[in-house]
Amino acid sequence: MVAQKIKAAVEQAIAKARKLPKDHPVKAEVIDWTDLRIVDIELVAPLLSDDQIYIRVLIEAATPDCPGFCQFIWENIPPFGMPVIIVLNHDLLF
Known about the structure:
The protein has two helices and three strands; from the N terminus they run αββαβ. By secondary structure, the protein is of the alpha+beta class. Strand 2, helix 2 and strand 3 (84-89) form a beta-alpha-beta unit. Helix 1 crosses helix 2. The radius of gyration is 14 Å and the shape is globular. The termini are far apart.
């Protein structure tokens, strides 16, 4: 249930990012806007350390070096009671 809420929130943020003006800094980052999609959502609970539990969202079709895009997503999703980490994967681009 929580994964579906997170997926819906991130999809809404991606849709909002797609509508940004062409001169917005996020639009200058290396992102394949047509193939941009969520491929996985995981609850990560480190077992060998005292690190905090977090949610990892894997988004495909953007290079890992898209800090503006990640920041935009974080700013446009609600809090979920634990950190949400956005991981970008560009395998489909190359």
